[in-house]
Amino acid sequence: MLSISALLIAAMPLIRPSSPEVHPVHLSVMEIYRDEKTRQIGMSVTLFMDDFGDAIHYQTYEKQIQQGKIKPESLMERYLQQKLTIKMDGERVAFRIQRTENSMGAITCYLRLEPERADVRTIAVENQIFLELFDDQRNMVQIQIPGKKSGMLSLDRKKTSGLAEL
Fold first, then answer.
1. Packing angle, helices 72-83 and 58-66, rounded to 10
2. Which of 46, 60, 139, 141 has the highest count of CB atoms within 10 angstroms of its CB?
3. Distance CA 68, CA 45 (A)
4. Is 97 part of a structural domain of the chain?
5. pLDDT one-digit tens code per residue, 135-166
6. Euclidean distance between CA atoms 39 and 61, whole angstroms
7. If we measure between CA atoms, which residue out of 143, 138, 140 comes closest to residue 164?
8. Does residue 21 fall inside a structural domain?
C-alpha cells in the first residue's frame, strides 16, 4: 500500500509549476506507523524543502552551516519540536530526528520517540507546521499501525489538533 508521503512525492511534478521557487500546494504529511525492524512506534514528517528552509531561516544561518558551526538538522529538529506536540495515551512524547531523506524537492524527517513505545491506544497530535508562513497550509497525519484502526487527521489553521483512538 502506498503511503501519503509516496503519493505526495510522486505527484510533485504534476503540482509544481514551471518556476522552481514557487509551488501552489502548502502541505505536510506526518506518518505514524510501527517500525517493522524494531517493532516500535515510529513517525516521519515529509515537507517541501523550500518551505522548510524558509521556516528555519536557512539563509540567516547559511554561512555558519557551510562553516560547520551549525548543523541544519539541529535547526530542523528545533523547529519541529516547536511546531509539533504528540501525546500517546495521554502522555506527551518527545522526539528527535533520527535521519532524513531528500527526494524531488521534499525532505522526510524520520523521528525517534523518547521513550520508545511498542503499543498505543490513543494518539493526539497538535501540528502547527508552516502556519506562520501560509494561510492555506494543510497538515495531514496518517496513522497505520498493524492490528489497530488506521486513520487520518486533516489539520490546518482552523483546526491545529486532532485525536485518534486506535
1. 150
2. 139
3. 25
4. yes
5. 999 999 999 998 888 889 999 999 999 999 98
6. 37
7. 143
8. no
